[in-house]
Amino acid sequence: MEFTAQMIAGLIGGTVVGDPEAKVNNFAKIEEGRPGCISFLANDKYEQYIYQTESSIVLVNENFEPKQEIKATLIKVPNAREAVAKLLQIYESMKPKREGISDLAFIDPTAKIGERCYIGPFVAIAEGVEIGEGCILHPHVTIGRGAKVGADTEIYSNAVIYHDCRVGQRCVLHAGCVIGADGFGFQPTETGYEKIPQIGIAIIEDDVEIGANSCIDRAVMGATVVHSGVKIDNLVQIGHNDEIGSHTVMSAQVGIAGSTKVGEWCMFGGQVGIADHATIANRVMAGAQSGIPNSIKKEGVAVLGAPAIDGRNFWRSSAIFKNLPDMWADMNQMKKEIKMLKQQLDIKEE
Asked: What distances in angstroms separate CA 261 from CA 220, 258, 308, one per listed residue?
């Protein structure tokens, strides 16, 4: 399907500079642009490519003023990054959705499957499962007994939803993610470790996206809850009885120990670790590899380091880290000189 520059400008509220009839049918990075593609420029570091790109249309911020001639038609918008995200969403929504149930899928007779679903080969759906309308289950998905999946949710290959767990509407579960595996609960004994049964469930609310090979453990009792709008990257671990507030985002390899409550709109960089039984306030930002051993009660703070401290203090401290060996040597030299001065002045040590 082709779109003209004028049509695209109408969709995203932009202004055309150049040929309003320029046509595109695909997307490309600006440095890899090809005729018939649309690209975007949102970072000044990439400005050089706009003068070289072969893309037919380029989205730019409305304050962009070219320094050289540009072959492409421009569409000026308030925020080029947001505009291309909107276009990608429109593009994705226009793709035809698959429907139908493969003859190679296993569906227990007691399961309830909504209309317009696609269930691929080797999907296994156990007794008492409820699948909402318009869901897409790719090959080798496993849904345990009594689990429920809301409408228009897409679950990729080899993802597993354990028994009795709940997944909301319009969620995306990527390949290999696991919802509702046992939490890490063991009681030390004289002969080893005795497993503590994990009899709770995991609840994933609406509009949540969970990356490949991420794990949301079921609760010991009650529920582990991931609230609406949360976005979780690949290889993330959410422990048992955790509660993750709405619209929080987590990059790869974040690990959150059990019984921790995370507020709304938090942002965690890669490899952030949070201790058990902590409470994290709303809108907390933790930089990559931050280690958070205790609760953070103040909203909107940014932390870095391990153990995590205020971000500004961390950067000031990090500037000193590289000088610590010299500072240590200087301090020892000063101690020696002070001792010599005291001896010369016959000052006795107390």
From this structure: 15, 9, 17
Q: Between the CA of residue 276 and those of 101, 251, 262, 273, 291, what are the distances in Å?
A: 42, 19, 11, 10, 12
Q: Is the peptide bond before 307 cis (omega within 30 degrees of 0)?
A: yes
Q: What is the pTM of this model?
A: 0.84
Q: What is the DSSP string of 65-99?
A: --SS---SEEEEES-HHHHHHHHHHHHHHTSPPP-
Give me 79's structure tokens.
Answer: 């925020």
Token duo for residue 349: 């040590």
- Which residue type is seen at 345? L
Between CA 157 and CA 176 the distance in angstroms is: 7
User: What domains can be seen in the chain, in order of their start residue?
Assistant: 3-93 (3.40.1390.10), 100-312 (2.160.10.10)
Query: Mean pLDDT lowest for which of 80-94, 132-146, 164-178?
Result: 80-94
For 182, left (φ over 0), alpha (ψ -120 to 50), or beta?
Answer: beta
Does residue 138 carry a catalytic annotation? Answer: no
Nearest to 227 by CA among 201, 202, 256: 202
CA 41, 45, 47, 52 torsion: positive or negative?
Answer: negative
Give every CB contact of residue 347 below 8 A, 6+ residues apart in sequence.
341
Q: Tell me: pLDDT of 319 over 90.
A: no
**Catalytic choice (227, 240, 247, 277):** 240
Eight-state DSSP code of residue 125 = E
